[in-house]
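User: I'm new to structure prediction. If I give you an amino acid sequence, what do you actually give back? Let's try with this one:
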Amino acid sequence: MSSLEKIFKLKEHNTTVKTEMVAGVTTFMTMAYILAVNPNILGATGMDSGAVFTATAIASMIGCVFMAILANYPFALAPGMGLNAFFAYTVVLKMGYSYETALTAVFIEGIIFILLSITNVREAIFNAIPINLKGAVSVGIGLFIAFIGLQNSKIVISGPTLVSIFSLDGFNAVNQVEGVVATFNNVGITVLLAIIGVLITSILVIKNVKGNILIGILITWILGIICQVTGVYVPEPALGMFNLIPDFSNGLSIPSLAPTFFKFNFHEILSLEFFVVVFSFLFVDMFDTIGTLIGVSTKAKMLDKDGKLENIRGALLADSFATVAGAMLGTSTVTTFVESASGVSEGGRTGLTAITTGVLFLLSLFLAPIFLAIPAFATAPALIVVGFYMFTNAVHIDFDDFSEAIPSYICIASMPFFYSISEGISMGVISYVFVNLLTGKTKKITPLMYILALLFTLKYVFL
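Assistant: Good question. You get back a string of structure tokens that encode the predicted 3D arrangement of the chain. For your 463 residues, that looks like this:
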């Protein structure tokens, strides 16, 4: 215990080993859902779900250890929500890049972030972006994630109006598989279970139950297993409706990393569009991380009298090193999780909390059959509720100042409607510069914002 005291300075932070470990377990419980959600999201790109699960667990552990060593803060890291959606649904499925190229973008973004974190450039970029636009990015990502959750659960499907609410006739009209028809007993029941899952998770959130999102996923999944055992749910692989019961035939073996390990593609890194992808990763990661650090550290009363976090450079370096490691292993950008606030609420004040969370991520590797059996309809409620958490940042946008509010609104609306986080960022930056430039409010526009607006405009002109 004395060695832990020496390493983490527990007395100085007015905490104990027991308090830190309880806080670490609490943090893990609130963010362990990423072990089920991330393989589901990145699996849509063709990546091996088992390999993504292993990469997610190991990258999270590495991030937590870096946070403990470099900053001694109780903040935990894992592949970020929103960033994984951008990776899969925008970069790969919409823009047409391979997942190998997307992993390369994450790798390069991580290296750039390391360089920015050891210089003052990061502060310059952060300060250049208007605070309202920062909030708008978070809100837009929240809507985008919620939309993905609604789609993954089939609550929302394609229709005559581009999107519509689920119906068996509507689903069969646009998802024709030869010899296979969607019925209530395959697709229909999963839609109902997803809706029930959203309600259950919402109740758990309102009741402030620790681990609410993970518990919501597990309850929805267990309800699905009950439906399968009783014959109400019948698996139909052709429609993406798989067996819900974990397969322990291979014991508690850890899925191989081989399908995703070091799978980089550097052939397209010199294109302008690739630069936009890297910048988008960097932009979202930077503001998501800093916003999370400030929010959680405020709750923990770690900010100094000037509102600054003493060792923010160490925390940012931990984030960037973990992102590089995650890309090498085969997962999307690793970032500090806002769920770390749950551990802080339990009294976590040092890196021992982060270490405890990291160890639990490592141990979770042996539970792969459980996490990989959790279906999309059970993880969809998590996406929808996490989207709500991000959406709450709308209260920080100044809607009384239209020159701030309209570009923020354009940024928010563009993400779900254009099905792209990067398009939302582009539209937000361009509209902010042009609206304020043409209305004579040029003092609000930083030189860097002019440069970004020009680059994004050129992208639309030439690409």
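You can read the tokens as a compact description of the fold. Here is one thing that stands out. The CA atoms of residues 246 and 369 lie 5 Å apart.
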